[in-house]
Amino acid sequence: MPYHELVVDTVPNLNPAWRLGRAISDPTNFTGECLVMKHNFSMLDLEAFVAVGSHLNYRAAAQSLNISPSVLSRRVKKLERTLNTQLLIRTTRDVKLTIPGKEIYARAQLILADVEELLDSGKDSNQYATSVTIGCTNLYTPKFMPESVRRFSRVFPNIPVQVITPGVTGILDAVRGGTADFGVGDMGLEEPSLEFVPTFFDRVVLAVPADHPFVGRDRVEWSEISEERFISVSKGAPLRAMLDFELAKSGSKISIFHEVGNSFTALSFVTSGLGITAVTELAARSFSRPIATIPLVSPEVVCSRALIRARGRFMRPAAEAFWELLTVEWADIVGSMKMEDG
């Protein structure tokens, strides 16, 4: 059985099924495009379409892939946009394959089977017998990264993942120097050697003990915490720089009582009854001990989260596959953390 190099032919008016891929008989030419293709769709998109075609039901297809229906729908729509072809007709009662969809569904099944055979056979093992190294702050390691790695490993179970936590500056250095394939962190200043790809916005909230008088309110203004013992992260931390800038711009002032190295230490101080703090929602959800959070307003402060990679450097197929997964599913992963925390 031939292997398939997943490419998209851009010749106009070509049969969509043939735009999906072409067979090649020499597995040594297999370039890794089964992991992340060059033309704006991935194996995950193809897998999602085949699942819907098999079940003719979005919910059942999503359950079979262990993803949410919204993620499944985005992947199928992405494939349709790339092929410029409607593959499915969805009504309130059922899901049907279009005529081009039936043709592409049959071809896609063969492609997935061939790729599975290639990966199982161990051919071209030097390319796939590798690992992915991700530089990540401690903010993301307790919950976000385990869920991300779980989703990646479901598709690529034989590729190990190494997560390093060298700190904010260390992550940038690791990505520049090639120690990490890419990084997960905060939006940074534009610089020639690094590319920051924004993924989602993380709102700053007030974290207080469970019995604090603020508990139960739908919002708290910064001016209301001026008399509280405020626990701040230290100068030089991205969150501190953001808070200092936004508060100065709005004319708001807070009195810092305790100062600590990072958000998790600040939250530990809160649970010990030493005061209150301001952290991002993601940090609060990643903290293992019970705290109460309330939105902070006037001003509302929002941090932009990003994926970070070196400009102009080839990314190995396994790392590119993980990068692609995060760009597509970041919001869904964070949402699953929120639901898990109740």
Ranges with pLDDT <50 over ≥5 residues?
Answer: 1-39, 123-129
Outline the biggest β-sheet.
Answer: 10 strands, mixed
Q: What is the C-alpha radius of gyration, as a whole number of Å?
A: 23 Å
CATH class of the largest domain: Mainly Alpha
State the CATH topology of the largest domain.
Arc Repressor Mutant, subunit A
Instruction: Give a count of the beta strands, DSSP E runs of length 2 or more.
Output: 14
The N- to C-terminal Cα distance equals: 49 Å
Tally of domains: 3
Q: Summarize model confidence as the mean pLDDT.
A: 79
> Number of DSSP helices?
12
CATH superfamily of the largest domain: Winged helix-like DNA-binding domain superfamily/Winged helix DNA-binding domain
State the shape: elongated
Order of helices and strands: EHEHHHEEHHEHEHEEEEHEHEHEEH
Q: Please give the CATH architecture of the largest domain.
A: Orthogonal Bundle
Structural class: alpha/beta
Assign a percent range to the helix content: 40-55%
Beta-strand percent range: 15-25%
